[in-house]
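Our platform keeps sequence and structure together, in a single record for each protein. This encoding replaces a full spatial description with a residue-level series of whole-number codes. We quote a single record here, exactly as it is kept in our systems:
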Amino acid sequence: MTRRKKQETPPPREPDPKTKARADEARLRNEQRHARAQVMFKMTGDELTIGPAHNDLIWKETVLDAFGTSSRAFANREISRVLESLRATGQRHAPQDDVNAALAAVDGTRPENEMAAMLAGQMAVTHALAMDMLGRTKRAEFVDQLHAFGALATKLLRTYTMQTEALAKLKRGGEQTVRVAHVHVYPGGQAIVGAVSTQRAEGGVADERGRQADGATDARALAFAPGAAMSGPDAGRDALPEGRGDGQEALPHARRGKRQRRAPR
């Protein structure tokens, strides 16, 4: 018998200069990023123990900061909720890597309080479920499965988008900032910079939102600024000629067939 020689795996090729430069930039950015909170699973018989991945004191401080809280009970409970939400059917517990990935996502949002941390935890689980449904949609063998998994994936992705917007609004304190980059004022126009009063003028009627519906208005607000003349009739041009027919002719019907002839005049 002739034995076949095993094909040796070729050594990795040397990266080109652009790839090396890209790796150097990535290394610098990674060095500036915070280390994410992690947990380590330990099975003692049938009991699962979640413990620190390094020094106990450092781990506790890191986990508390990851959830934006000073309450150990809150941080431990949120970890348990993430663990249970990621557990699939038939599993005794979610994989350690899945839990650490979710904790990294929560930590990456840098929550400032417990409310933001709860929303970040929901976003991490929603993302995991949405990706799972997308994969099931790709592997569906029947049309009804394709529709069911695709619909769930779409709902989860929409929910994730809403959660992202809610977290952004929570971080900015519920206020919406509008920045005006450019203001164009054309000849004859005026620009108002500052607060605009919505108080009702004397004799006017305001609606339920405090805006004036009708009534007298301050004359200064209607003052016309000097500038270009407003458009109007051009005296230098002739008016359109009037029709000279004695009677009026009916317009042809829009849906008249090609074979129908126009009525004689």
About this structure: Residues 188 and 229 are 8 Å apart (CA to CA). Residues 201-205 have pLDDT under 50 and may be disordered. The radius of gyration is 35 Å. The chain has six helices and four strands.
